[in-house]
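From the pipeline queue, job 12 of 40. The input is one protein chain; the requested action is below.

Action: predict structure.
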Amino acid sequence: MSEEVTSWTALREFKHTDLKQSFVLSWDLLSDSLQIDIDLCLHPEHPFYEAPRPAEKACFRPAHIEFPNCSKILASPRDRDLAPNEVIHALGGGRINDLQRTGEGKYEISGKFGQVVIFAERPMVRLKDQRT
């Protein structure tokens, strides 16, 4: 029995955002949580949307995507025996192409940085300048 694939557009955490216009800035492992720093593109319906600055075409806000209780991260087949912090050390940044839940506790994010498979709990999205 195969797992159902769920696009980021169907996950409530990403409501009123556009990941395909967002950029990964860095990756970090804090305790057992993977934290991805991003410039997150917000739609006008998002509660923290602001009109874009003159040089921008959309509203971008600094944010984190956090994957709590991250047990494994794979960026290539050879990563199977590496610790998560060793894998993220080699990852770069860039535009996000897609994020999907591909199984229970399994997420795949792809972009200019390659394809990364994350085994963790459901992600949380937090704007950096918000105290929530």
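Job complete. The chain has one domain: 6-127.
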